[in-house]
Amino acid sequence: SGESYKVRFLDGSESEASLIGRDPVSDLAVIKVDRSDLEAIAVGSVHSVSVGENVYAIGHPYGFEWSLSRGIVSGLGRRIRGRDGNTVIPGMIQTDALINPGNSGGPLLSADGRMIGIISSIYSESGGGEGIAFAIPAETVLDVSGTIISAGKVERGWLDLLSVELNPVIAEYASLPIDKGILISETVPGGKSAAAGLKGGSAATQYGQSVIYIGGDVITALDGERIEDYDDYFAFFFSSHPGDKVDVTVLRDGAEMTIEDVELIKQDEGNIRWIAR
Predict the structure, then answer these.
(1) What is the C-alpha separation between 170 and 236, in angstroms, rounded?
(2) Which of 32, 87, 93, 118 has a Cα at 20 to 30 A from 208?
């Protein structure tokens, strides 16, 4: 925070702005402009639009200022991997509106002119407009920005354990009755997960370039939400906070059981550990 920027408005005027904070995971930031004549855009809801409806994107593609493109909502509730690789942004809006470099950060508008999202990323090999575009839904934008304004940053929760995404190879080797879920290889000694009763494995096994331990719990649900893979796992933590308590359903000795009130740690405490696919 404290960094300075200039903001240019539609009428050509400019104002100094300061950075309040940023969230690298969602690629959102909040800046402050000291002007009293600004009017906030009307904000809509992703729940008010359906696949096939017209949407509009405003931005500065390739430097062409205030460009407007039209498309439709191609999909809702998409999950997109964050830039760090170990987060998933849930609920993204997919659109075929023509998006190019310079549109990111611009609004995605519904047919009645309400902002339903902010353009975030482009699924394209060349970075051009032939790709699939995604927007962060307005609800997520408001939640993240509100947290930044109140706290200056966004802190998310995490389970302090070494996790491995289950697959048929591991399941067969470990004689497990399921091949989907998150295997707990190790827990942090004295950590929150261990204290709550989650158990890691005991039999060391070579897995690619890593050594994992099998025989431990397999996470199958968090707060009742089924967890089948890392996308489910990472998406769950996107809206979580350190200190939150979650109910962790695990498969242990062939039967499911739920460990209640497992406390989450900060994602930046150094105990975020997971084995890549």
Answers:
(1) 23
(2) 87
